Amino acid sequence: MRAPNTAEFESAAHGVLARLPEVFRRELEGVVLQVEEFATDEQLDSLGIEDPYDLTGLYEGVALTERSQWDSDGLPPVITLFRQPLLAEMEETGVGFAALIRHVVIHEAGHHFGLSDEDMHALEDSVGD
Questions:
Q1: Can you give the pTM of this predicted structure?
Q2: Distance CA 124, CA 129 (A)
């Protein structure tokens, strides 16, 4: 079986966002979703991560719960999925493509909302397959 390509990752991730409740979809409209092969050295260093396979997704931006009226609307928040680490995790864990993408996208989107891990799990359960 061949590995999903970047376009398939992007399509699956956008599909997850499309299934979120309307209130979440509306707040995520300005968030950029992208797929890269691996995190950059700068991204890994900022998180104290040495092995690039240890990072499957990343939210970069200011959570809605932490924004103030003084925050500039410069660069949009970004959710990045890292293709090679995700492929490795699928192989190692046996978790299916759709389920893994759903989990990582919702987890990273949850950071945008300032959600707890418990809230993220509830949201993930509400989206389903």
A1: 0.85
A2: 9
Angle, helix 83-93 to helix 97-113, in steps of 10 degrees: 130
Around Cβ 124, how many Cβ atoms within 10 Å?
19
DSSP conformation letters of 8-73: HHHHHHHHHHHHS-HHHHHHTTT-EEEEESS--HHHHHHHT---GGG--EEEES--GGG--TT---
Q: Collapsing DSSP states into helix, strand and coil, what is residue 77?
A: coil
The overall longest dimension of the chain from CA atoms, in Å, is 50
Supply the angle between the helices 117-127 and 97-113 in degrees, to the nearest 10.
130
Helix 6-19 vs helix 83-93: angle between axes, to the nearest 10 degrees?
80
Confidence of residue 112 (pLDDT cuts 50, 70, 90): confident
Based on the number of CB atoms within 10 Å of its own CB, is 70 exposed (0-12), middle (13-18) or buried (19 or more)? exposed
Instruction: Supply the DSSP symbol for 83.
Output: H
For 44-71, what is each residue's pLDDT tens digit? Answer: 999 999 999 999 999 998 777 776 655 5
